Backbone:
């Protein structure tokens, strides 16, 4: 089945130690999104890629970076995680930004714990 | 800026009964899309139903249906014949149509936790 896959499902890191979360998709969607979701809150968009074009949200901290080496893969890099970065990180994809293609499909998420 | 409001932090329903979750939104756009997503505890966010603003007909997906009132900017979700597996956090979400400055971005409501009692 076509899907959005996130690895790892759980990640523990130390304060200040860089960490990378990965997302892959078999849907062949050209738009990929990264969200941060804290407990019992709505997801917050960090950034998205439209093909190779990177679009950062204005309030996303510089500590968060992203890479998209190809259509299928997208990475979230947290350069120096702080305790406040502990959260669920969700990857989502959509086929295109065009009429009828707006639905975003989510991966299972990676829960990040910062010690 | 667009906003989405879910005024019910928590709702509960008996198995096999019907429940309605409320959502209101604010936008000056005429072309947009509305969604209900379901997120079970520690599980994946799943699309429940999708509504295009330009369609007058309310969307339905099996036991799930919406009451879309465009003039009132209301988008409620009705779950019929509730099942234990329906227990989850439900998010209402909005995105602009093509040409909007925020096109492709989802604006979420705060979520409603639905409990289903056997």
Residues:
């Amino acid at each position: 089945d076509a899907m959005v896959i996130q690895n790892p499902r759980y990640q523990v890191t130390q304060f200040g130690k860089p960490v990378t979360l990965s997302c892959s998709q078999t849907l062949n969607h050209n738009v990929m999104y990264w969200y941060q979701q804290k407990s019992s809150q709505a997801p917050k968009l960090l950034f998205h890629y439209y093909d190779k074009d990177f679009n950062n949200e204005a309030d996303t901290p510089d500590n968060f970076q992203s890479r998209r080496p190809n259509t299928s893969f997208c990475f979230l890099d947290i350069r120096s995680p702080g305790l406040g970065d502990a959260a669920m990180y969700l990857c989502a994809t959509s086929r295109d930004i065009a009429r009828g293609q707006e639905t975003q499909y989510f991966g299972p998420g990676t829960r990040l714990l910062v010690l | 800026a667009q906003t989405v409001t879910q005024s019910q932090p928590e709702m509960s329903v008996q198995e096999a009964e019907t429940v309605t979750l409320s959502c209101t939104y604010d936008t000056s756009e005429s072309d947009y899309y509305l969604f209900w997503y379901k997120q079970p505890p520690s599980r994946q966010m799943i699309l429940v139903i999708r509504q295009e603003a330009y369609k007058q007909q309310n969307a339905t997906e099996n036991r799930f249906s919406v009451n879309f009132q465009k003039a009132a900017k209301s988008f409620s979700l009705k779950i019929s014949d509730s099942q234990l597996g329906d227990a989850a956090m439900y998010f209402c979400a909005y995105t602009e149509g093509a040409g909007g400055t925020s096109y492709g971005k989802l604006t979420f409501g705060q979520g409603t936790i639905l409990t289903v009692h056997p």
